[in-house]
Amino acid sequence: MGERPTRRPLQPEATDFFGSIEPRDNIVCNPPFNCAGRFVLHALTLTVRKIAIIFPIARLNAAHWTAETPLRRVWLLSPRPSMPPGHVIAAGRKPGGGKVDFCWLVFERGWRSAAELRWLHRDGEVA
After folding, report:
1. Domain 25-88+101-121, CATH among 3.30.590.10, 1.20.1330.10, 3.40.50.150, 1.20.1640.10
2. I need a surface site. Which of 23, 41, 56, 99 has the fewest CB within 10 A?
3. Tens digits of per-residue pLDDT, 34-85?
4. What is the pTM of this model?
5. Quick one: which of 51, 58, 67 has its CA closest to 114?
6. Helix (H, G, I), strand (E, B) or coil at 60
């Protein structure tokens, strides 16, 4: 029997991720972009399998920290998702008009080849 969905607060209790040592199977998140490299490097010490982070495509060419990681796949999102700040959603305003292109960066423990580039379409088509 399924569980009833639980309403979670938009601002969960703050924790110090960089102080965490608890092992995890996988991590999927939206880290602060100004410390995404540090975040992924720490997550790699905690995870058994994969890490997936949402990341602005415009920052990808300067993300030199990915060179020493097991970056498995870059998923480009199409069409561009609207990702307003939490306070916009909390105020009940309708998201829309996003101007930033995002991708998913997927890191897989043990991956040693070049990263693959793929497209993830909202209509379900995968390329």
Report:
1. 3.40.50.150
2. 99
3. 999 999 999 999 999 999 999 999 999 999 999 999 999 999 998 888 888 7
4. 0.81
5. 67
6. helix
